[in-house]
Amino acid sequence: MAPLNNLKFSFVMDEHEVTYSFSITNAFLISRLIMNSTGYLQRFTWIESSQEWNLYWEAPKDQCDNYKEPRQLNGNISITKTRRDSSRQSSPQRRRISN
């Protein structure tokens, strides 16, 4: 990958490895790459003049890119359970029969 704004990227994907790396081509640039608690991969650069970290890039770019567990697709519905299954399980008659 070509240098972009003082960063040189490398990505390898083959039968032995999948790796991403970067190197900084400007000795005065300070950068950090983190994965935050919500699963976003974020690159920050240090802005000396303001003495703060600036969000330079993040992924995923769109909310739809986020992976969600099946139970999170719709508040009460799981891919593995239907409303019918859920109502049967919570039915008092069903509980008495199984006890």
Characterise this structure:
Residues 68-99 are annotated as: Disordered. One of its GO terms (biological process) is recognition of pollen. Residues 4-69 form the S-locus glycoprotein domain. Pfam families: S_locus_glycop (PF00954). It is built from 2 helices and 5 strands, in the order E-E-E-E-E-H-H. A hairpin with a 4-residue loop joins strand 4 and strand 5. It has helices spanning 83-90, 92-98, and strands spanning 7-13, 18-24, 31-35, 41-47, 52-59. With 99 residues, the protein is of the alpha+beta class. It has 2 domains: 1-66, no CATH class; 68-99, no CATH class. Strands 3-4-5 form a 3-stranded antiparallel beta sheet, with no helix packed on it. Strands 1-2 form a two-stranded antiparallel sheet.
Number of separate domains: 2
As laid out across the biggest beta sheet, the strand order is: 3-4-5
* Class inferred from helices and paired strands: alpha+beta
Number of DSSP strand runs: 5
Shape: flat
What's the end-to-end separation, in Å?
Answer: 64 Å
SSE pattern, N- to C-terminal: EEEEEHH
- Rg on CA atoms, Å: 24 Å
For the largest beta-sheet, the strand count, sense and barrel status come to:
3 strands, antiparallel
Number of continuous helical runs: 2
Strand content: 25-35%
Helix content: 10-25%
User: On the 0-100 scale, what is the average pLDDT?
Assistant: 72
Low-confidence stretches: 70-74, 76-83, 85-92
State the main characteristics.
99 residues; 2 helices; disulfide bond; single chain; S_locus_glycoprot_dom; 3-stranded antiparallel β-sheet; alpha+beta
